[in-house]
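### Sample
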Amino acid sequence: MSPHSIFRVAIHTLFSIATTILLYLISLGPIPQHVGFVMDGNRRYARIAGKQVSAGHADGFTALKRTLEICLRLRIRAVSVYAFAIDNFNRSENEVSALMRLAKERLIELCQHGELLEEYGVKIKFVGRIDMFPQDVRQAVRDMEEMTKHHKNGVLNVCGPYASRDEITTAMRDTVQAVYDGKLSSSEITSSHIFDELGTSKAVSQVDTGLLSRPQDAKKLDILVRTSDVKRLSDFMMWQASDDTQLHFVKTYWPEFGLSDMIPVLLGWQQKMWMRRLGVV
């Protein structure tokens, strides 16, 4: 092995050890149950890096795997990501086609190399208007969900094609249908019934409640992170983020998002929890 290769291996080993130590120290404090990510900035990242837009989205998928592993190692039980907005279908035909190809390729890759989800026992659930995907992408979605359907240790909600208003409308429609089917009395309907019918809520409810520190709050978002320094929700989990969710808008483009961005987010949330326990807030 050349000196250069030895140096690279040594740096990689040191980084791995440092990462393990950092995650262990963070795990000693309170850990959020549900974290959401608006994965923004793929196109701007690609433009600045002189890459094709499709390459920016591909690097964004790598960032998702990297971030998901951090969350899983910390035993964050629910992760929700904004993968594809319904409005994204208004983009150019070439970009939408590229995104559909990438989605299919990466889903197949996950099916073939699902060690991360298998290792941590995490279910993958797609939330949104799946019927808007091409047939081959829909099949890849079904295959991925089938592969992890028995996992109970956590859930990855992949939201797309998704809009929060559509999710809420669907939940209301399902609640009304339950009344028509005689499963629920109209006089018993409360906002909690509708909230529980949200696609993300139903997915989180399938996690083993014995692993949750606050089962009653698991369907709500503890933390919402949006990258690329854009400060808006963009129709993502608006109901789930309306009650005590800590919002973080970071400047990093999503393909470059990693541990150095995630640590301040987690420490900020832990600080809030400690202050709350001390009665400061």
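The CA atoms of residues 22 and 79 lie 20 Å apart. This sample (Alkyl transferase) is used throughout the tutorial notebook.
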